[in-house]
Amino acid sequence: MGGAERGDRKRRRDAMAEAPTTVMRPVQPGRPGGPGVNPSRGQVAAVQRRWTGGRIAVVAALAALAVVVVVTVIVTLSGRTSPAAVAASYPVRLDGAVVVAGQPTARTTVDVYEDYLCPACAKFEQDNGAEITQALNDGQIQVRYHGVAILSNASKPPGYSERAGNAAVCSVDAKIFPSFHERLFADQPSEGGPGKSDDELVALGRELGAQGDFENCVRSGKHTEAVVAETKRAVGNAALRGPRGFGTPTVVVGGEKVDISNSDWLREAIQRG
């Protein structure tokens, strides 16, 4: 090796030794660059997109979970408050203004006192109607429905309780009592309002397939006096009174008032026979 070549190699080594060393540090979101050489704008944008995309994915997942929870709660609550409807197949007859439902051979008789403008009566029907209907279909109970008018003055003009009670009695001969009774509560007007008109009551009967002279029975108030008389008997019956007097709904089994806040009241009544 010649002296010229050796001198050239030495110069290259000295130049490399004097060159600066650069260390590339990881790029952090929000800190483009840092000590050393700054990354390109493309690198910064890529990292920021990854962070933003990750946060969006987490938020979307949490939102989807919230929707699932809400839907589950709604379905659960709906299942608790809306028992499946049961089609009625039991016989119905009249005893004055009292509607007698079910087989005469049933071992258990239940008396139900209700006003068709009474919100608590509507709640009672909502909570117990399907179970009562099934027990009637099975011949386990007979139910005596006493339509009373203690809220006569709670409609404007007064009198809807009597008119609805009369229409319910009319629905027996029209062969639609079970469905008419259910709809009077399901479509219950608010207290303080006019209630359903005779036209509306007649239209409801027609919708449900009323037979015979249902319209004339409703418009003439054929059973109104009987409903008023039944109301007076109920109000005057000391056995039916509570701490604040007579109220609806009142349920009696075997001559004793039933605590309808007990969800098993009907099953227990049937077991006692």
Q: What key phrases describe this protein's structure?
A:
9 helices, globular, six-stranded mixed β-sheet, alpha+beta, 273 residues, Glutaredoxin
Q: Which percent band covers the strand fraction?
A: 5-15%
**Distance between termini?**
124 Å
The helix/strand order is HHEEEHEHHHHHEEH
**pLDDT averaged residue by residue:** 82
* CATH level 1 name of the largest domain: Alpha Beta
Helical residue percent band: 40-55%
**The CATH homology group name of the largest domain:** Glutaredoxin
CATH architecture descriptor name of the largest domain: 3-Layer(aba) Sandwich
By DSSP, the count of extended strands is: 6
Question: In this structure, how is the largest beta sheet organized?
Answer: 6 strands, mixed
Overall 3D shape: globular
Query: Which stretches are low in confidence, meaning pLDDT under 50 for 5 or more residues running?
Result: 15-37, 65-81
Strand order within the widest beta sheet: 1-2-4-3-5-6
- What Rg do the Cα atoms give? 39 Å
What do we call the CATH topology of the largest domain?
A: Glutaredoxin
Number of domains: 2
Summed up, the helix count is: 9
Strand-pairing-aware structural class: alpha+beta
Description:
The protein has 273 residues and is an alpha+beta fold. It folds into two domains: 40-82; 92-272, Glutaredoxin. It is 51% helix and 10% strand. It has nine helices and six strands, in the order H-H-E-E-E-H-E-H-H-H-H-H-E-E-H. It has helices at residues 3-18, 41-81, 119-137, 160-173, 177-186, 198-207, 214-220, 224-236, 265-272, and strands spanning 92-95, 98-101, 108-114, 141-147, 250-253, 256-257. It has a six-stranded mixed β-sheet, with helices on both faces. Helix 4 (160-173) packs across helix 8 (224-236). The longest helix is centred in the N-terminal third of the chain and has 41 residues, at 41-81. The chain is globular and about 130 Å long.
